């Protein structure tokens, strides 16, 4: 059986979690989890992160409706980073974009490559 305590957390008890669209493969966002948020995610099927700014659990989409349904949780080889395959409803980014990774550096210049969703 998998035990969330078996993961390697940073000194604050956190582990980076990268959310990726399970169907299209698009990287949507990165956030932090602790052992309890990993356990809650696996138990409920709704991705739950740890908000460092609010110091509280954050169920993705709880207030916005932009839910992340867990498809699969993957561990990297060092057990210190997670890949969370999800089915995303609406935008993943708080800026109302599909992905948080909407800025690219081209020839030394930052360029926005994705507009907010309507």
TrEMBL record:
Residues 29-102 form the Phosphoribosyl-AMP cyclohydrolase domain. It comes from the Bacteria. Keywords: Amino-acid biosynthesis, Cytoplasm, Histidine biosynthesis, Hydrolase, Magnesium, Metal-binding, Zinc. It is found in: Cytoplasm. Its EC number is 3.5.4.19. Pathway: Amino-acid biosynthesis; L-histidine biosynthesis; L-histidine from 5-phospho-alpha-D-ribose 1-diphosphate: step 3/9. Its cofactor is Mg(2+); Zn(2+). Zn(2+) binds at residues 77, 93, 100. It catalyses: 1-(5-phospho-beta-D-ribosyl)-5'-AMP + H2O = 1-(5-phospho-beta-D-ribosyl)-5-[(5-phospho-beta-D-ribosylamino)methylideneamino]imidazole-4-carboxamide. Mg(2+) binds at residues 76, 78, 80. InterPro entries: PRA-CH (IPR026660), PRib_AMP_CycHydrolase_dom (IPR002496), PRib_AMP_CycHydrolase_sf (IPR038019). The keyword Zinc applies. Binds 1 Mg(2+) ion per subunit. Catalyzes the hydrolysis of the adenine ring of phosphoribosyl-AMP. Belongs to the PRA-CH family. Homodimer. This is Phosphoribosyl-AMP cyclohydrolase. It comes from Paracoccus acridae.
